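Structure ticket #2291
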Amino acid sequence: MSLPTTPETEEGACVISTQGLTHRYGQRVVVENLRLLVRAGAITGFLGPNGAGKTTTISLLLGLLKASAGSTEVLGLPPGDPKALAQIGALVESPALYDHLTGLENLEITRLLRDLPRAETDRVLGLVQLVQDARRPVREYSLGMRQRLGVALALMGQPRLLILDEPTNGLDPAGIQDMRELIRRLPLETGASVFLSSHLLAEVEQVAQDLVVIHRGKLRYQGPMEQLGAPGRAELRVQVGNTAQALAVLARAGFACHEADGRVLVQAPLDAAPHVAACLVAGGCDLYELSPHKANLEARFLALLEGP
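Resolution: structure written out below.
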């Protein structure tokens, strides 16, 4: 499914734009004919199972690999262009840190190399909430703190685009929560667009507005989160005291419905909810819950991975 071309997603309004992007390792095609349009100002989740081609695609976007075919623009410039790289922050896999130095000293090395003002170090430490631990040696940092320091390094220089490759990989639940909240805040506090690679579907669902799904190097979906997968009929989820009774009442009222996981799913839009509730109550049903039903992201995602 392609991302619809709207004023917000035209190529000129995108931070990443590719046409026919392809990469081969010998005879093996790992990225095939990708057309990406990643809009500015959004958090875009880049999803796919391990081995789908996500890290290879990111390496192509950063100019670390040369494409076998196709064209790519990042911030309107070719991959690897110095003017583009100066406006991109990236955390690819684990951050490269000097363990014997403090977090502050790690940041200062990058700041001095890039000739940035001293205030930049303080700014990024505040963004990732490491001010209190800035003078501790990195070898004493937890994995979550190391990842946040890696994000701080990527934020140096106030980039327009932040590319994060599996930033929650290996983190414990508390670390995942901290990283999720940080990523959610970044566009609001920095103005940067975020391109977030992950195979953790639940995490992406909680932070991203847009999604790109690839499998075996091919694009399977691109678009808004809520439109993932083929659109189906609207449904309402109903929890009642007696499922069989509710099914009979709703069927008599003309609703198509079925039972799933102990609840009744009614094929009806949200604005039909008051009528559904009135029918159930009038039919003597004990009504405990009535809410819109959405297929979870995992089910929709897995459906996209079926086939070659």
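Closing remark: Residues 1-9 have pLDDT under 50 and may be disordered.
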